[in-house]
Structure formats: structure tokens, C-alpha cells
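Hi everyone, sorry if this is the wrong subforum. Our group has a chain we'd like a structural model of before ordering constructs, and none of us has done structure prediction before. Sequence below.
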Amino acid sequence: MTRRPRLLTTAAAGAMSALLLAGCGGGGDDDASKPKDKIAGADTGDTVSPSATASDPSTADRPKIEMPADLSYTFDWPKTGNKDKDAVLSDSEQSIKAVDLAIVNQNALDKAYLYYYEGEAAAGTQKFIQNYVDHKAGITGAYRFYSPTVAVAKDGTASFSYCEDQGKAYVKYLKTNKIKKTEVTAKSYVVYHTSLKKNGKGVWVIQKIISQSGSAECQP
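Answer:
Right subforum, don't worry. Here is the predicted structure as C-alpha cells:
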């Protein structure tokens, strides 16, 4: 997933389409000639304990996700009253923060996000995070997520779409501590479409994710 297309440079815009085709919703200056690194545990989910439950992010075996004070999140997606749908919402919230935690930790193989991503989504997310590591860049500011649409199938799969407002979120360069503030435009509003499955440990893991910045449906 990489999820969010927080572009580090103008050139990253051209790379975004390729990342979307790879099941990744984020953008970056990734070198397509580089071989993909194997994601430890991405397909097996072997860090997950059998006691995990998808509706409880505080379960002891789940990764502890604590974000720095300069990052804030608003999730405007209220509970539906449906156990499975609410579990998808809960796990998706944790997965979003887990990717940002990997950026904060400057670790493209951070265990927290690998808990919530598999296959193509995990590979794309690794590249997305590595782009930040290569640029010695972090993130700061406020993110808001809204307009959720979730559907759960009887075969243990689900689809989840939502919007993100990146208008108050910025790239921060770690060497200089300089924050790259950008003007709020239509591209500050992004729509995401994710495909998930409930694994054997009870966690809704993301298998594919695509995004589109400037989405009309996400405009205020």
C-alpha cells in the first residue's frame, strides 16, 4: 500500500502510476531497476498470535503503535454496528498508523505494518517507506480520513474505500528538520480502494490498495 501519495519530489508523480499497478497507493522516487526485497512474514503473517481478534487493536500480541506528538489523526468513520465491518474499520485505522510509524522509525521492514499487509500491498508499502528512508525524510502534521464504504463477503474477504485530507500534512527532512509545506489543492484530497482478507489469526490484512489524488468524491 503504500498508501498515501505524499510526494517527495515532482518526479515522484510520474512514478505513481506504476506503483498503483503494483497494488500500491503511495508515490515516491523508486528506482524500477532495483530488485524487490523479500518481505519477511508478508505472506505468512507469522508474527501474528492465534489469540488475535480483528476488532480489538489493543490485543496483547498486536504491534504497539505510538505516534510522535507532531502527528495527529482524525478518523471520521463511525461504527456500523456490524461486527465484521467494524473490525475492517478498526484494523484499517491501525494499518494506516503502522505505515507512518515505519516512516517515523525509518525502517522499511518495520514489523508493525507487516502485521497488516501481505503480498503486493506489503511489497508496495516497503518501497514507499524506503523512499522516505532514502531521502532521510519523515512526516508531520494532521491527517483526516472520512467517507468510508465497506463491504464484507461471506468468503472472508472485504473491500474498503475511504477519503483522506492531506491538506495539513507535510514532509519533514530529518537532517535539517525543515518542513516542506505545500499549498492545499484538489490533489490534497485522495480516495483509496483496498482489498482485504481475514487471515487465520482474525486480522483483516490488506492485499491490494490503489489511490487517486484529486478525487472529485473526496472534495470538501
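For your construct planning: The first strand starts at residue 71 and ends at 76. Helices lie at 12-21, 83-105, 111-114, 119-134.
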